[in-house]
Structures are given as structure tokens and as C-alpha cells.
């Protein structure tokens, strides 16, 4: 296929070994026959020389363009109707190929010949995809000036870069080698899929009609032609309106041959003469002069109404619904590094930019733990998009702001599974009813690339909505519903890694994981923050070293969390302006000096005590804990007093609004960083287990425990540093679990998951404390003992065990010995180590449920326990596969047993055989040893031959002959099979 864009690109270049320009065609209809033969030869010479081109041009397409003057840099439109041979290009190509086949070895059979219209003027273009072998004359060629002998290799590089001559032997050898290398490289490449994307403007036209209700599609339309062979690719919609002439919408595919398409439409009279026609086409991604494509279409189709599809949609359908974007202009921004998979690292902003410029890659997930800078990175990225194009549609959705609205939507029996749900929740603040900007318009604007959407902190939605948020369907919808036509959808999601990594989805998604700052980046940040004041930079780096972490690389370099650096910078800056100490010597009930985050919060709160009067460090911390558990993530000015742990006056409230951990705006008080929200939720959980007061177990706390305590996550690790494993904590967790079980029994089905998650998380915390305990060795035995202490009804029976969201990772394996145990009324969901646990045939599950328990990679369940009255639908495929494997293994074992006993069979009975003979058979091996060990086969000494070592079939097992002879079951076979269990 030859496109206008590629030919326009050729016209910007000089002639070369792969590009030849001709102002006029080689002959006219009045050319004498003798001269005509030479002109045919001239055309063939140009094409053959283009095939070989010159050294260094293998793999590059070749072009002969007729109708363009290189000296004038001007198009001289070609009138094909004036040249008889060119009136039918198909017939001309066929004749040309026949001539070339007679003339040369390896002729260009894939030669393309098409007319191309540029600025209303016609060019005739010959395109030769790069050959894979040299093109050699096998007969002599007569041109208008010379005769070229057979065996000659014609190339294009003489005194000028494009002049034609015979190649030297050295040049010929090098060309042959380069063509051969190119051919080998092509063979190794995966076959390229033709980019034949079927696109349509149907949705655009339908939405245009929705907006202009007086219009409708006329009978017989649309007309859709997709002839990929001839590249005639278009759609025509005829819109009628009473008392007005019709309007035609014409879609020209980006790969359409414009001349052929135009001629087809004219020939079939699909558009009335002088009727209004609106042409839509794709915006080219690799063409600098975008208007060039529209100019060519305007000239060819004789209309001024030519738009790119996304341009038309923006101007005529949804521009008024685009919200204003105000740049964030993040202060002291330092570009961090992102892990993009494997061993690859890249600047985070560069990775986002590359993704944004790609096609058919709709979703980017930015992962990392709290305070790592996910939101900061996104805001910097959005600013860069805005700076490049101020008309870009940008929608930033903060999950904390909309989660309450999403909960309301979910409570109305509507599962959250679509971006439009998030958009509606965001627009509730504007009393938006969804009538103007419909779901279909949102889909179109996103697919067209007119609207970039960011969903910041989606983990907050996952945590609060639970099963009300169908994450899998949500992710799938982005690819299936929002990436259907132009495929320029761009949606960014930020999420804490431990939330995202617990999700299951089948769609391939691009992800980056933000990494902590290196020491160089930390220094760079402080230099920006302190405007190059080296004394403060040095002091900040010294303080930051106390909060540094060990990197994961082999060098063991220290790394730093960005939010910690920001708080350190704040402390130093405040000290500089208001005096005082940067570090704290105070104590607080819920904060531990040896834990960096606690110590940092302690330092900040201590600095605020004097400013806040009687609002102590503990008061501040309790206030923040209460704030973190607010359903909407903020508190209004009117409710600040209600979450204070002590009485406060208006003056204190006014000062509290300026607290460095808080942000106040439009009558709402929330945390400055989303990290603090999670951090203080963690303190709320810690407070419960520290005080061991079960009266504190309310619905909010149950939800927090179930959502935030996970095996191996940061919060669980921190709790283990602050709590000690003891009998008291074990008994308190038992009491907690008993209360939760009571709630499960009385709960609605939709509420049970919350309570079950809390049971699992409480038990996992207890296990984690055991792991970190120095007094008791952690292994499968001690873990099982703890399980039996909490859930055991007797030494052999477990009741009410719940294990959920235990994800395999770097933490120790969480497994239990469940051999010879009955497990009742239990629930297992996303417990990655389920099949690692020890089972036997006496392991018996009763009235229990199982979900998402795929065996870990490379693990084959050794034993499948028995199930009675259980919900095993989600693991039935695992059980069936294991049973099929067992059956296959049993069949192999039976066959081996049969072959061994056949060795003893002679004359219709079993006779003793030499041990040497039996042992010499390769297949006997361990199977024979087990048969001998269990007495099915015995060592035998014949009194007549006492020195001869023999085996014989035991008298107790001679009945197996029934199986050996007839293949029918028998009790002796059953006993033997039992040896191998």
C-alpha cells in the first residue's frame, strides 16, 4: 500500500540510491515504435537499479515518483488519460512484470503502482519493498542511450548519489552479502501483523444525531466498503433533515488509497453533487505536517469540511464538558526512578511520557508504598501534558474525595465496575445528573485521546468498597469498552503496591513501581528545597540518614522515602525561622522512638505543642487517628470538635488547621499526604491490640483490621516491632475472633466478607508476632500449635478457621500441618500457601468454602483432602486435575505391577524366578523393593538348590493372577496398591 504521507515524505528528500524523481512520463502515445522500445528499456533500467540501489540500503523501500521535478522542487500533475498504457494500471503492471521476468533474475514481483494525489495534483508512484537478493540481468537491455549486457548488476551510485552504472566485483560481493544478511534477519523476525484495524465513525455519527435531534440516517445508509486488496476503505452516512438538503459524513480510513476511493464513490454515486459533506479521518501519529493530510483530502474530495476524528468530536460533541485544568506546579520536584519490570530501571517521568505517546496501550498503573511520591509524579506528568497542549482534556480524580459517593452508588445495588462510576462520583459536587455528558460521550472522548484520566489512590476504593468494587471488570472495561476505535485511551491509576499485587486480573497492564530516592536524589531535593544553602543541606542529609533504608541492590546503598525528606526539610526550615530542636525527646503512648515514622511524627507534633496550647502530643495523635477513620477521609469545620479527644476552643482549631500534617481547604480538614491517612489508621489498629480492650471493636475498626493487616506488609511488620508475642495477646486475639464469629453468624451475606477478613487478619497478626518472637522457634509445628490454640475444638478438630489474602512473597511461608484433622466451618480465599500445607487422606473439610486457591507456580498438590458439604466450585478444576493425575499414576502403577508379576508366570501359574533375572528388568526398580518389603513377593530358597537366590509370589497374594490374566479387580491388588499410598 502506498500512502500520501510516505510520498509527501519522499518529496522532502533529495534523489538517492532508493528515490528517483521523473518530471514527465517516459513516452507519449505519439512516440515512434523504435523509440518506444528504448523508453520501455529506460523504465526497466530505473526500476532494476532501484532494486539493487547501493551498499548500505538493504532493508529500505525504493520509490520511482513520476510527476515531480527535483530541480524545481515542484509537482507537475500527470494526466494518465493522455497515455494509453497508463489508463489501466492493473494491465500495465501485469505487462511490466512479464517484461521484467524475461529480463532479470529475481524481478520485483511485489512491485506496487498507484496514483497519489497531493495538493490536488496527480503523481504516479512505483514502490519496491526492499528486495532480499540481488537483481541481475539475464538478457541484454536496450535503453535510449546504451545497451547493457546480460550478467551485469546495475546500481545507483556513480559520480552523483543517484546516477546509474554497473557494479564492480567488490561492490557486487558486498551487496550479495548485505542482501543475504537482511534475508536472514527477516527470517528470524516474527511475522508482522498487518495493521488492518477496522475503524468506524458510527459512534461519532450516532452521538452527533443525539445532539441534533432533527437529524436521522437515511434509508440505504451507511454504505461501508472495506476492500483491503485495493485499499478502498470508507464509510458514508447520509443524514436527512426535514425541509433541508442532506448532509453526508464520509470516513476515509488512514490506509485508504484516496484516488481509488474517490473514484469508487463517484462511480457508484454515493454522494450527491454539491451536497454538504463532512470528511473524518484518523490523526496521523508520525507526520509532522498534520494539516497536509487534510489539505490533500480537501483537494481530492472538493470540500472544506475535513476533520480528524478526535478533532471533530472535541469541537462538536463534548468540548463544553471538559473541566478546566489548573497546573499543579509541584515545588522542589525531583525526578525519581521507576522499576519497569525485570532488571530495567528508567526515569519515572520518561516512562510515563513514552506510554502516553504509544497507541493501543490504555492503562498505566503506578505502584509503590505510601509516601513514595506516586501522586507527586502524576501531577508533574499532568503538568507536562498540559504544557505541551493546553487544549488537552485532563481529569484528576482523588479517590479520597469521591469514595463516599462511590459507596452510595454501590449501596444502590450497583457494582462499581466502570470509569463512568468514578466520573459521576466526581461530578456530584457540581450537581451533575449525567444527562449532558453521557457514558457514551465519555467513552468516545477517552478513546479519541481527548481526555486523559487519572484515578489517584484507588487502593482507598478497594479497601472501603470490598466486593462492591469489581476490580477485574473495571480493568477489563478499559480495554473492551474504552479502547474500541482509535485506541488512544490513556488512564493512569495510582495504588499502593500491596493492594494492587493482591488483585487478580487477566488483562496485560503496563506497570511501574516507584523506588525510594538514592542519596544523590535526596541531596538534589534538599538543595532545591533550601535553595542551595549547603549548611542546611548537610544538616538535612545527616538527619535523613537516621531514617534511611537499605536498598535492594548488591551494593547495599541507603535509600530514602520522599515524604520523610519533605518532613525533615520542614522541621529544619521551621527551626531556622522559629528556633527549637529538630529532634524530639518526648514520649507518646502510641509512638515508639526506634521506629523512624513514629519518631518523625513525634518530632513534628512536639514542635506544635507550644503553638496549640494544651493540645499535647497524645491529643494530636488521637485527633489524627480519629481523622483517619472518617468515612470520607476529611472532617468539616463544623465537626472538628467532635473528633477531638479533649475540649478545644476555636482558637486552637484555627491553629490546628495550620498543622504541618494537615491540609485545610474550602471548609474541609484532611491529611497533607495520603500516607498519613494510612499511617494513623495503623495506629488505630495498634491502639486496639495495645490496650486489649475488646469494647473498642466497632465496625470501623473491623473494616480497618480486615483491609490493612496483611501477611508480610509494612503495617504488619510495624505492629510486630511495637507489640510482643505473649499469652495475653494470644488470648485477646482469641476473644476478638470469637466476637467476630458471632457477628458473622448474624450478618447479611454482603457483610460477612468484612468480618471474615478481620478474623483472618487478626490471626495473621498473631502468626507474624510468633514469627518475630525470639523465644519460640517459628516453623510449621509452632504455627500449627497456635492455630489449634485459637481455632481448635479438640486435638483433631478445627472450627472457624479463616485465611484470606495471604500472598506469597518475600515473607516466610505461612503453612500448617493439617494431617489427620477435620476442619469445619472454615473459609479460604487467596491463601497462596493452601496447597503447601500438609494434608493426608485423613484430612477432612466439612461445611467450608474455598476461593482463588491456585497452586503456586511449579507446585503440584501432593494430596487432595476430602470435602463434605463444601463450596469447592472455584477449586474444582484443581481437584479434578489432581484426581486425573492420580488416576493416570494409578494406571501406570497397575501396569508396572502387572508386568512384575508376569515375570513369575509360566504355564498358567506363578513359579519362583532368579533374583538376578527379576532385578535385571529396568522397570522393576523401587516398585519391586516395596513389594518385597511388604511381603507380596518373598525371597525364596529351593532346598534342591540352596545357593540359588530366588523370588516367589507370596502365597497370600497368588490371587492377583486374576488381575494379571484378565485385568479384573481383586482384593490382593487393592492391598498392593495400598503399599504405595
TrEMBL record:
InterPro entries: NPHP3-like_N, P-loop_NTPase, Schlafen_AlbA_2_dom_sf. Keywords: Repeat. Pfam families: NPHP3_N. It comes from the Bacteria. Residues 351-496 form the Nephrocystin 3-like N-terminal domain. This is NACHT domain-containing protein.
